[in-house]
Amino acid sequence: MAELRWNPLIKDWVMIASHRQNRPQMPKDWCPFCPGSGKVPDDYEVYKYDNDFPALSQNPPMPDDVATELYPVKEAYGKCEVILYSPNHTITLPELSTPHVRKLVDLWTERFSEISKDEKIKYVFIFENRGAVVGVTMPHPHGQIYGYSYIPKKIELELDACKEHFDQKHSCLICDMLADEQKAGSRIIAENEHFVAFLPFFSEYPYGMYIAAKSHKQNLTQFNDEEKDALAAIVRDAAGTLDSLFDYAFPYMMCMYQNPVNGEDVSDYYHFHIVFYPPMRSADKQKFNASSETGAWAHCNPTAPEEKAEELRAAYAKFKSREGK
After folding, report:
1. I want to staple 54 with a disulfide (CB 3.0 to 4.6 A). Which of 58, 80, 203, 214 is the partner?
2. What Å distances lie between residue 320 and 165, 236, 262, CA to CA?
3. Nearest Cα to Cα of residue 163 among 262, 256, 264
4. What pTM, to 2 d.p., does this model score?
C-alpha cells in the first residue's frame, strides 16, 4: 500500500507506505551502497541512488478504494532518492574533506534542479537521518531527497510566517533573525564569509543548530562557486561540532529548507536555511518529544540556548584544533 490520506484536523496529507515495513536491516557482511555490491558503481565519490523502498514515486499505484467525503485519498506521487556521501562505509560527514563535501553540495544542487523539472512536484526536501536512535537502518554515510506533490504543513507554516513578516515589515524574517542573532552574539557558533551557524533564541532542541545564508537567496541553484564552497565548509563544521561535543558520532536529523517549486514566487520573503535536530540532550540522555511536543506542538527545551551555545562553541574549537594537527 502506498497512498496519501488526508488528515482534516490539521489539513495535511499523511503518507501511507506500508510496503516500507519490508525494508531490510543492514546485513553484517554486505552493503548495497558499497562498491562491489552490484547496486552502485565500483568507482564513485558521491552518488544519487533511487530509493528501493520509496514512500513516493513518479509511477504510483492507484490508491485503495477507501476514500470518503471526510477522508480523501490521492496517489503517493513524488520522488525519493538516496544521496551517497562516499564509497567508504564507515566514514562520517565531518571526516570528509571540504572539497569532497563540495561535490555533495553540487549533487544536492543538481538533484534539486532536476526534480524541480517535474511540474507535479511542489517541494523538494533534502535531509539526512543519522544514527540508530533516529531509525537509521543503513549506516553507510548517506542522506535523502523527497519530492512532494504538496507543500507539507511545517513548510506551509514557515512560508506563512515569512510572508506575514514581509507584508508588515517589508523585510525577510530570516534575514532579520540572523541580524538579531549576530547582534546578540551569544548564540553564534561559527561563521564564514557567506553562512552563519547559530543556536537560535527559540531552539527547541538543546543542540539544535541552524545554518543560514548571509545573502538573501532561496535555494542551492542561486549560490555561486564561492558560496557553495562556504556551504560545504560550514555543513561539515556543524556536523563536526556535534561529534566533538562528546567525542562520538552524534545522532541528528539535518533538514534543508528551500523555496517551493512549480508554484508561487516566494523570493521576496523566503530564505535558504538548514536545521539540525539532534535528539540528545547530553552524551547519553535522549531528548524525547513527549506528549506536549507531539500532541500539542508545544515544545519545551530543558536547557538554556545561551549555555548550550557555549558548549557548542567549545566543541567547534575542539573540532578545528584537531584538524590543525
Report:
1. 80
2. 37, 11, 41
3. 264
4. 0.95
Closest CA to 208 of 325, 122, 300: 300
Structure confidence at residue 67 as a pLDDT band (50, 70, 90): very high
Q: How far is CA 305 from CA 11, 203, 277, 282, 300, in A?
A: 32, 7, 14, 14, 12
Q: Which letter, b or e, does each residue of 182-201 get, where b requires 16 or more Cβ atoms within 10 Å of its Cβ? A: eeeeebbbbbeebbbbbbbe
Write a three-state SS string for the chain: CEEEEEECCCCEEEEEEHHHHHCCCCCCCCCCCCCCCCCCCCCCCCEEEECCCCCCECCCCCCCCCCCCCCCEEECEEEEEEEECCCCCCCCHHHCCHHHHHHHHHHHHHHHHHHHCCCCCCEEEEEEEECHHHCCCCCCCEEEEEEECCCCHHHHHHHHHHHHHHHHHCCCHHHHHHHHHHHHCCCEEEECCCEEEECCCCCCCCCCCEEEECCCCCCHHHCCHHHHHHHHHHHHHHHHHHHHHHCCCCCEEEEEECCCCCCCCCCCCCCCEEEEECCECCCCCECCCCHHHHHHCCCCCCCCHHHHHHHHHHHHHHHHHHHCC
pLDDT in tens, 78-101: 999 999 999 999 999 999 999 999
Task: Give 170: exposed, middle or buried? Use CB within 10 Å, 0-12, 13-18, 19+.
Answer: exposed
Provide the pLDDT for residue 138.
87
Instruction: Supply the pLDDT for residue 144.
Output: 97
Q: What is the pLDDT of residue 137?
A: 83
Determine which of 106-120, 123-137, 161-175 has the lowest per-residue pLDDT on average: 123-137
Q: Which of 19, 100, 142, 194 is catalytic?
A: 142
| 142 in active site | yes
Name which of 302, 299, 298 is nearest 281 in CA terms.
302
Q: What is the pLDDT of residue 28?
A: 72
**What digits encode the pLDDT tens for the residues 268-293?**
999 999 999 999 999 999 988 889 99
